[in-house]
Amino acid sequence: SKRVCSLRKQRILKHGWLDVEIRITKTLYVVLLLQAFPGNSNADTVVQYKLKQPVIARYLRLIPLDWNPTGRIGLRLEIYGCQYTSDVANFDGSSSLIYRLSVRPSWSEMEVISLKFKTLKNSGTLLHAEGQRDHSLTLVLEKGKLLLYHQQAKCISVKPQLSSSFLLVSLGSLLDDQHWHHVKLERLSTHLNLTVDKNTQQAHVPAELSHWDIHQLSLGAVQSHGLQKPILSNRNFHGCLENLLYNDLNLLYLAKKNNHQVSAGNVTFSCAEPVSVSATFTDAHSFLQLPGLTTWSSGVVSVALQFRTWNKAGLLLTFDLPQQEVMVWLYLSEARLRLQISGGGRAQLDLSAGSGLNDGQWHSVELNSREDQLSITVDKDEGATAHVSIPLPLTADSHQECRNPFRVFQGCMRLLTLDNQPVDLIKVQQRLLGNYSHLQIDMCGIIDRCSPSHCEHGGRCTQSWSTFHCNCSNSGYRGATCHSSTYEQSCEAYKHKGNTSGHYYIDVDGSGPIQPQLIYCDMTEDRTWMVIQHNNTELTPVHSSPERSQHSAHFDYAAGEEQLAAIVSQSEHCEQELSYHCRKSRLLNTPEGAPFSWWLGGPAPGQVQTYWGGALPDSRQCACGLQDNCLDSNHYCNCDADYDQWTNDSGLLTHKETLPVRSLVLGDIQRPGSEAAYRVGPLRCHGDKNFWNAAFFDKETSYLHFPTFHGELNADISFLFKTPSSSGVFLENLGIKDFIRIELSSSSEVVFSFDVGNGPLEVQVETHVPLNDNRWHSVRAERNVKEASLRVDKFPAATQEAPADGHIHLQLNSQLFIGGTASRQKGFLGCIRSLQLNGVTLDLEERAKITPGVRPGCPGHCSSYGSLCQNQGRCVERASGFSCDCGQSAYTGSFCHEEVSASFMSTTSITYTLKEPYELSRNSSALPSSIYSDTTLRGENISLGFRTSQSPALLLYISSFYREYLALLINQHELPLLHCLSVSLLSTCFAFTFTVVTYIIFQIDQDAREDFNLTSDVEFNNIKSLILGRVQESDELEAELAGLASLGFTGCLSGVRFNSISPLKAALLHPDSPVIVTGPLVQSSCGSSSPADPYAAETTHSLSGTRNRLSQPLVNAIRSDSALIGGLIAVVIFVTVSALAIMARFICSRKETYRTQEVKAAQPEDGHEFPFSSQVDCESAPSQNQKEYFI
Questions:
Q1: What sequence ranges are listed for the domain F5/8 type C (predicted)?
Q2: Structural domain that includes position 57
Q3: Domain for residue 518, yes or no?
């Protein structure tokens, strides 16, 4: 390589506009557009240009842009190099150079060692730096990579042990290519920097090296000195070094001058250039054909070569043995070397040797065939020899036609010998020997696509000759380069996917560098809390001790420092409980004195805080001081009163700048009689500012602009949008030629387009549903060096592979436009929310506040998220998001999904009382229409779940002021039976008609549902109360039903709902409601728990506006004190019961077995008016497995 500083051109007629393309390796082309160089305008003038920066290059390529249209073409170019000092030394594997510091230098914060090297060997020790206390740094070349080790001696008791080594950093790849590579090692006070060529990696300095000095430097070879053993034994460096500098001191120059501090052994101060011609097999059409030797006709064959490749399979060579009439194949399969000898159309022998031969390193192969033996040897010189021998001759039926049944070889070969005679590949290149095609001679074009690795977040990189693959298993990330996180960024995001409370992995910065963390999400309230635990959240006592003046506690959080800082930053609110319980133990002292106690809080390492929970920062107060209700008005904390009685100062720390609490120091604990206890609760945060950050674009010409997006190698963009428009640009960022854009091209298509220098590419996702429905839709686009992908909602992602070996860097330089373009065309109308680029959320709301035509925020979330509110829960819009109102639901929880259950004893009774009659008439307009319609119900919707072994049993009883009632029962067969009964229509003005048709719809579990038409008036007037469990007053009931009601209900009830009334939920959660509870009532999860018997049949039943097959007769009896009305009703009852009994018998004949229990159908002759057992004896009821029903 040469350093070019200036160009001189002459004899270019008119103008010769030139660009310079610099090829820095034999296979990698990098275009450096310096400038256009105008040439001379006559035949004699010389034009000279000095480059602003020197260029190190192997080749210069001239691209003429314009020639004299009338003159002849001519060019003369002179290139001038800069003054360059080069001191080189050759190391032959037995050479060494040692530099000893005669005077111990004063310690400095920085030491620098730099050098250049080139070699054909893939392993060897480059540098060994020794210091005091038996510590050293060793830089070795191992398998083409540079590794930096820290060595130290171990001592057990007083006996020193051999040193142990620790790898600090690994960098580079394929460095055994006989090209110069620049290495720089910097030791700073806190870290080490290792630079190879232009790539730098940083490693933290071990504590032992923080004040470490170099006493001796060894180059090329390391001898054992006491406890220090070489990292690579018997592996000295073989190659050339140039300009070896230690803190600007040229050690090679000192060695040449025979400086007494430098001793050189077997070092020559020149660089020998070994001749090594390689050939690269680039593709499926590459081959090299060489003539066989005359000795092969007798069966004596000797072939040797070296190869390197990334592929697991490929044919290395093949030849035939005429004497044996067989074909020999030497090939790679599963990264092992295999030898196959075939003849007569069948495989006669198949041997394998070696393993892992696709590691990109040079491997040697020797194949020798004699008259009576054939042998193969792999890596003979590497000490890991695989040797296989087989006897000859082999019998064959016929000669096989030459063909290649294996995959082609892609890789490099060198040092090819036939019968110990080297093959001159230069003659092959000149077509003087053999034949070849698609072969690159005099170079090895292997590229390490995994160094540096494009796999992010710990993804493991593997490669073949033409591509690489990232294994993202167990990394928490996905995609071609493990770029995109598989987890959500907050508990808020998990909640709005329909999840409930639990532990979730949270990736606070998405595709950013912060790793995911397992965090508990509390979703039991309207707010979603992220709860970060630490190592001590319990109340911890502290006892007095005269030996110590302070007690300190440090808190280690489950999340790392980066996660903590990001969680606190992106949350709307954070809090942490801080409590101090005291007895003769002061807390903060008087405002004038120094505080006895304090705590550290805020970003690591934390700052001293002297206020307590419930007070303001820097106030040196507790909550009672802020509220002016401390025990002693002279102090601002209860504990500072120093009373000989227990008291406390407790409260919440809510200022995010001081959270989390990292450590706590308590000072007044040494006095006799002092007692104290403290508690630091977990860090709790709610509200994701990023998730709801939105902007509304109300004009097509409006847009937001942000700084240039930097996503050169990996770019991911995600956001949500809703719009009534069928087209519009979401995002655009331009460069000189490169660009990136995401747009809604039609009402059902999103397009992601970009250009990184290979020409525009597009990725499209077309949905089968319209996207301009003014509902939220999600978009996620990603572009990396391998592919581009686009996903819309949950539709399949579309991908577009990147061109092979094309440009990979996305270079943008303009502003990033959101909701429009720089030309103000194709603007977006609607809302964009939660816009993130490479894990960083853009603050749309803040920018929208100062931008005309754009408004911060975007309402209307219930249209998209309202379906998350379950069980009659109602979606309520909020400024940021939504909530579920469970007031009309029998369930509770953030999504009205948590069942409200209770265990009932036989004496338990819940009575939900409705309004009195005079209140009904006076305030009927204020009553819920779902319950009252002109104080008369024409339809009821009852649902509940139960679990019991009691049969028969009364589940629900509803009474009316007009002595009407409705009862829901279980008969002796454990199947639910509905009784819709009306007794005594006392009102003489009651409008009674037989033409009113009422549908009673009954459903059990998920079975089919059934309708029953009752041609009688069953209007339910003025409900008085709803009763669960035991009925205290049963005078209005029949004797048999009254006896059953007095026994109560034993078991579990859950999710009880009558129209919009939830009596069980009111009794358990809203004691201020008009509900009366008598007897024991225990809230439990019995409604959702599994049965005690794991084999018991458990089913779910429901009664709603759906159909089902009924397994038992349905009875509707209407009774009145009027004889005439009673007679008419009796006739109706008789006809109805008879019809339903016949129907029930038919249905029951088709009813399938009910899980594990056989259900017997009721016989017509047993169809009493109340078809439950008159012998109401729960104790004598048959013992059967409990079943769960939802009605």
A1: 1-82
A2: 2-81
A3: yes
